[in-house]
Design goal:
Length: 164
């Protein structure tokens, strides 16, 4: 008579322990990747916010410089923007983004209405941040109603326009 020597007891203690060890190593490997993912997500968020601020500053510069009746801007200015992006930071508050904007007349000969605008946005943890340069052309067609078209005689008959 032949006896069947099969083990019908199920999983042994060694089998269960090996499955547990492999599962723990897998979970620990996934947990080890989480901080790197959070750091990448934070860096991406900061870069996209800085790019949004830079784009907004370029739009403001273009709106200011397109109208020849506006006063010429100063050579450069610096401002700090909070993490909420809603307001300029007051002294003593935590600064997240620092914006440097520079205005310069372009070196193209025979033109005095082409401006080069450079914007750099930096934040703690980076020294270069994001930066860009655009050229803006002042155009007589963009004067406000009630203003004459000559930049030397820009007089308004309406209430003055205030820029922030």
């Amino acid at each position: 008579m032949a006896f069947n020597q099969c083990n019908n007891k199920g999983f042994g203690m060694i089998d269960a322990l090996m499955a547990l060890v492999i599962t723990v190593f897998g979970v620990l490997a996934m947990l080890a990747l989480m901080p790197q993912g959070w750091l990448s997500s934070r860096t991406s968020d900061e870069r996209s916010r800085a790019a949004m601020i830079m784009h907004s500053e370029f739009e403001n510069a273009q709106a200011l410089l397109s109208n020849p009746c506006n006063a010429a801007p100063g050579p450069a200015y610096l401002k700090n923007i909070s993490s909420s992006l809603l307001a300029t930071v007051t002294t003593g508050a935590e600064t997240l983004f620092t914006v440097t904007k520079t205005f310069a007349l372009s070196g193209v000969s025979g033109t005095s209405n082409i401006w080069t605008v450079t914007v750099q946005v930096v934040w703690p943890g980076t020294s270069t941040g994001v930066s860009g340069t655009h050229q803006v052309i002042q155009q007589v067609d963009y004067t406000f109603p009630g203003q004459t078209s000559s930049p030397t005689t820009c007089v308004t008959t309406n209430n003055p326009v205030v820029y922030n």
